[in-house]
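Can you please make up a whole protein chain along with its backbone structure tokens because I've never seen that pairing?
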Amino acid sequence: MRSRRTQYRLGGLLAALLLAASPAAAKDYLLTGAKPDKLVLVDAAARKVERVLTIPGGGVAPGTIVPSPDGRIAYVVSNHMGSVSGIELDSGKQVFRADFSTTGEPGGDLRVRSLFGMDVSPDGKELYVFQAPVRMLPGEYRVEDTRIAVYRTADGVGAKPVRLLPAPRRVAVLAFSKDGGTLWALGWDLYGLDPKTGAVKETHKVLNWTRANHSPPDVLDIWPQFEQAATLSTPYFTARTDLAATDPGAFRTGLMTLDLATGRMDMRDFEDTSAVIFSSVVSPVKRTEAYSVYTQLTKIDTDGGKLVKRVDLPHTYYSINVSSDGKEVYVGGTACDIGVYGTDTLDRIGQVEIAGCPDQGIASLRVIRR
């Protein structure tokens, strides 16, 4: 029989291994981009930049950022929306790259850009990119049908699409359902697509809603930040057509939410329009709380449909995300800092500055657990 001392040592080693492997041992990191060619990894709790990685190609203006499910790789739309690079966060190595256009190839005449929409399948094996191609002919530029290009992430640098799916125009956000069976595409409406064929399985009306006495809602959303609560959200603005334009209640602001686990979509007003809002995020802990940002930070009760609190920000921020424990909200994009606010009070409790003060622009602000 083993001695009691040996048993204690084995038990302690097992406990340490279990602790290291448990979700509690992981912590939140933020991912953002910075002009002209940087991917920035931030330790959220330490309020410091962990590392700055270079996206190959130079002058690439990073935009949409999608982390792999295991948090090891960040896929970034770059090269002025003409390519996507997969950067390994530990080494900084480019392990995936797809250049969209064929104009640099013999006989190629397609110039292709990705207008924001991108997501990776829940198993991490396929990357889906919304693309707008234009055929460059000698006497004309011919606009082609928009599409979703599907890449195998294992194909590495030089990857080519394995499927091209038909897609509605004006798609700005792609988001997979939790089970991987539906690829949601947010455009004028919210489309549930078959990820194998691109067929539209269902549609939630947004611009084409039929709400009585309301104008078609206006939506501007190019920032994916649904990973924490598995809820896609976006602000919308609408006007009451049965009220005079001088009536304070004539213009309304609301929040659209899509539960990526159930597919349930809601659109609910929460205030008479009084502030401009660009992007929003839902708390992973209190699912009835959401936060939105532009020149102010706003807290919203999504269940009651009401404004909870609003505070002024030191400058404009485009993107927003929230901590895994729901206690902190992060605002980024636009300038070179990330602001940290407490979700209970909306007090500013921290800030992270990127060295050299590079512009984050429209880069996504994503949260990963490592």
